[in-house]
Each structure stands twice: as C-alpha cells, then as structure tokens.
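Hello forum,

I keep getting stuck at the same step: I have a sequence, I want structure tokens, and every attempt I make locally crashes halfway through. Rather than fight my setup again tonight, could one of you with a working pipeline run this one for me? It's a single chain of 387 residues.
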Amino acid sequence: MATSLGEIFGAFFALLKPLFRADKDASEDEKKQHRQKVLIICIVLVVAGSAFMLPGVRHFVFQGGSQKILERQMAVHGPPVAQLPRNPLPFAQYTSPALYTKKKTIIEDDDGLKRIVYYYFFAPKPVPGQPPQKLPIVVVLHDKEGMDWGALYLRMSAVQRVYPSYLLIPQAPAENIWDAPAAWSGDEHLNLDPNAPPAPGEDGRSIRDIIPLLATATKYNPVDENRMYIVGCDIGADGVYGALARYPGLFAGGVAIGGRWSYLDRKKLAKTPLLILQGSQDQLIPSSYGMMFSQIISASGGDAAYHEFPNLGHVCDASSFYSMAVWKWLFSQSRAAATPEAAAPTALPVTAVPASAATAAAAAPGPSSAAPAPPLPPPVAAAVPTH
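Reply #2:
Ran it on my machine without issues. Output:
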C-alpha cells in the first residue's frame, strides 16, 4: 500500500514539475508571468488541502454526502408524495366516473413538500341555450370509514332538480383526521379517553386542503361564492366544526352530523349558521352535547339549530340526516343576505332508511351520466361506525 501511494505521489509531482520550471531561454517578462502562475497554483493547492482537512468535507466526499443532499432536496422539492384515500369506494356501488369525477391535484406545503391530494367533483350539466349560471358549492367530508353518504344524497336527481349545486368531496388519507380542537373546555362531557394518543399535528389534518381545492373549483367553475357550504358526519362533522372555526365567515352554512368539538371555539363558530343533527340513541356522543353546544353558540351571537332523531345511534347512512328539509335550510343560507327561509326547519322527518356499506361496496357501479342519479340501496340493518 505504501509503495502504491509513493508511486502515485511521485507521478503526481512529476506531472506538476514542468509547471514550476521555467524555460531557460524565456525573457524576464515570461519568467515573471510563470512565477505568478506558480503562486496561484500554490494558493489553490493550499486552500484545497486545508478544506480537505475539515471532517465535513471528507464526510461529504467519502460518505455519500452529495447523494444525501440530493435525496433531501428530492424529499422537499422533488416528486410529490401520493396520499392514498382510505376508501376506494366512498360512494358504495355508485363510485363511478359517470356519476362522480375523480380528480387529483398537487398541493405544496409551506415547507416545500408537495403532496398529491385526491378528491371527487360533481358539476351539474348546463342548460342548453342558457348562459352558465352561478351555483352554490357544497364541501362534503366523509366519515371515519371513508364513506360520503352526504354526497350520495346530494347527487340524487331529486335533490339536484330543486337545489342544483357543485359537490366538492375531498378524500383524507387513512392516517389523517379532518381536524381536532386545540383544547377542550372540560364541560363537553364526552367521556374522552385520557390515555388516547394526542391528535396529529397540522401535517396529519386534511382540513387544510379545503382552501386550495375550493380555490381550484371556483377558478374553473361559475361558483356562487356567497353560497359555499360544508357538510360532514362522524369525523367529517369534526371537520365541519374545524373548518368553521379556522375560516370563520368563509362558508354560508354548515351541517354537522354526530360530531364533536370544543366549547372554547363557540365565538368563532357563531360567525356561520350551523345545523347540528344527532341520533337520540348515540352511545358515543350524548344527545345532550349537541343540544347544549347549539345553545352555547346561539348565546354567543350565532345561529345554531339542533335536531335530534329518535331511534338513531351513531350512524351516517340514515336518510333522515339528508332529507329535503335539511337541504332547504342549507341552501337558503347566504353570506350576502339572510332570507326568511334561513331559519332552521320546524320539523324534520324521523324515519331512518339506512343503507349497508358492505352490500353497496359489492354491487356494480352506477349507470352513465346521461341517466338520472340511481335510487339508494334498499333498507337493511345498518352497521354502526365508531369514532
């Protein structure tokens, strides 16, 4: 090894020797220029040798430092990270491109990380011979199982005939939540598990994706920005509360079904009309919670109504939660001006027609977009999702 190194250094200095030796027949000016070149070469060699003595430089050269820097740059600014939705069939057997258009977009976070976010979108067909009409848009947040029952009902032709609207249906990854309050007041009486892991940070909350998705929808569609709504059940209802607390005044109205939030945000929630729906047999969230929350928000200057449905537990697929009376209340809300119909409905139907997610997922996709929205699956025993 020593002989090899000696030979290498010998060959290196033999290569440099002509650079340091001046021609005997050279003039004084040529010799002076030669000495300047030698001085510059010496300075460069000294600087390079000194830099090579630094541990960081040696690690960079011999331990793959350049590759690690490249990998880090790729992670921050490189190819987007795909966040796959938790449920490939969010509309049961009606998860069909003919009914709901599946889209994806790239969202760049503040730290430069790019993410591929998936969502579904529904746009009513324009009326032939008429100019495009501005329509409301409804953001529909799925439950813990990834099911979008609210979007399924809003897409029905019977609803679209009376309340034509765009539907924006974001999909949260399995490891994400929609949102959670920063703190609880302690008066909610929700029997929160003290040993439960803390809610994830901002990176694990998909509610932050709503703003860029809404911006895209309003840019490419004639959306009535004074009539933007948000609806959700289960953890989707948590997302409704979170969106109204984060962006007070953005939405014209919200419907929260079987959700929970902190009383501490009552003043923020008071800036948006809110309809809270819940089953009287809900074992996860007591019915007294929703009633008390609506009263607290109203006492803070808000417009919060509460309706309770007998014989319903913590479910999201009951048709009572998505009746025409609910949509009448929602679509009558506007940021521009309140209307006489903006008050909460005096009576809501209480007959539940649940649908089986397991049966629906195994069925065939829906028909083409030219046909009206298909009817819901027949009544069967409903599975009870948990928070």
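The chain has twelve helices and nine strands. If your local run keeps crashing, start a new thread with the error log.
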